[in-house]
Amino acid sequence: MKKNKRIVCLLVLMVSLVSCETSLKINIEENKDSFEFPFFIPEDKPDRPLSAAVARNYDAYESIRPEQTELYTQFKYTELKGFDYNNGDGTITRRDPSKVIFENGKYYVWYTYRHTPVKPVGMARAKEANDTIPSSDWDLSDIWYATSNDGFIWEEQGVAVPRPPKPQPGWRSVTTTDILKWKGKYYLYYQAFMEASGLRGDFCPVAVSYSDSPDGPWISASKVVIPNGSEGSWDQYSIHDPYPLVHDGKIYLYYKGDFDKKPDLKPSKIRMQGLAIAEDPLGPFVKHPLNPVINSGHETTLFPFKKGVAAIVQRDGQEHNTIQYAEDWVNFEIASITELLPVAAGPYIPDAFTDTKDGKGISWGISHFINAGGDWKYNHTILTRFDCDLSVSIHDDQMKKHYYNYSPEFYYSKHGLSEKQRARIEQQTSNLNENKKD
Ligand code: AAL
């Protein structure tokens, strides 16, 4: 009896499946035009079944086409003139540039400057570092600055913020600075190391110096202005890449945290970005309760855009190689995906400090290339210029292409298999042949 029941149920199921498929076929046949996706893609999201991918094209992006998206761009790079690196022997580094500002008829940029008698020994050998031997590329550094009339040829002006004497914050190294102009005064925020980077990790808080002129003299506030988080919190060790903008009558300072360190994973840490807000440049800065606010990226690079703020998110994390946007300056969404993004970019942002409600975007700035000589034994970083079209004021089609045609040589020389990978593949092949013989 049970067997007959099962047969009957199976028969009923098959009949209903066939009729459902038939009705679907009839439905599509009768309404073929509406089911087939149209050749000319509808401007607005059509009221019809859409795949997740096509629905996302309408819901998540400004335009179906990246080339028509204001917050999409390619990036172009130009070698800077005016900076000497001792033939790349690792004793001089310039890196992690600030935003670029325009004052007194010229451009200004500040950056980490290391000039040590020897090249860095590396963070893993931080125990060997001393007053003249740097651990990392940014150990034993000061904040220097340069000026330019065109953004391509720079004149180095010298030190802006030197390392202060012990035990002041930054006595070991002051690095990775950024500039704020607020009520006619200038503020340089920077990482303030009190131990050689790598001894415990890349651990530091943020300190600040201020001046009446971009040419200094700079007075240290002699205090930590953005402290490390409480024990067990995501930013308990690293407050990196301080990046101030002005919004809503306040100072919105974005920064990076390195956390979740798991030595068995490569890389061992993840990096995300947080936000701290103050009404006074010397603090107190209140960290946003939704921190971290950007789930990827490495150095912070943001700019006011229309009502909100945009971010160049590069190097680390699930959403690296994206440009993101937050209309509320807190909740970021991906605006576009791109490549060859500038690393540690300091854009020229004319409306960075104007508390604008209609940000115009950016078209160039200074970024850096780490391990510029291609040999970690002589590790040093150089500054470079980048150009792009993330500006509502320009429309440069050459920046809106979406395909880089890399040469075969680029793939083979820079992205070939390692010996270990070749050995694994050869082993797989021989296993396959062995199995065939059996
Ligand atoms: C940079 C920045 C911070 C880190 C180190 C120097 O790219 O993220 O400044 O501490 O690397």
Helix/strand-derived category reads: alpha+beta
Instruction: Examine the secondary-structure arrangement and name the CATH architecture.
Output: 5 Propeller
Number of domains: 1
What is the CA-CA span between the terminal residues? 48 Å
Helical segment count: 5
CATH class, please? Mainly Beta
Shape: globular
CATH topology: Tachylectin-2, Chain A
Low-confidence stretches: none
Mean pLDDT: 94
| Largest sheet report | 8 strands, antiparallel
Taken in chain order, the helices and strands follow as HHHEEEEEEEEEEEEEEEEEEEEEHH
What is the assigned CATH homologous superfamily? Answer: Glycosyl hydrolase domain, family 43
Number of β-strand runs? 21
Helix content: 10-25%
Q: What portion of residues belong to β-strands?
A: 25-35%
Gyration radius, rounded: 27 Å
3D structure, described in words:
- By secondary structure, this protein is an alpha+beta fold.
- The protein has a single domain (71-412), classed as 5 Propeller (Tachylectin-2, Chain A), CATH 2.115.10.20.
- 15% of the residues lie in helices and 32% in strands.
- It is built from five helices and 21 strands.
- Strands 1, 15, 16, 17, 18, 19, 20 and 21 form an eight-stranded antiparallel beta sheet that branches. Strands 2, 3, 4, 5 and 6 form a five-stranded antiparallel beta sheet that branches.
- The two termini are 48 Å apart.
- It binds 3,6-anhydro-alpha-L-galactopyranose.
- The site of 3,6-anhydro-alpha-L-galactopyranose has 12 residues, from strand 7 and strand 11.
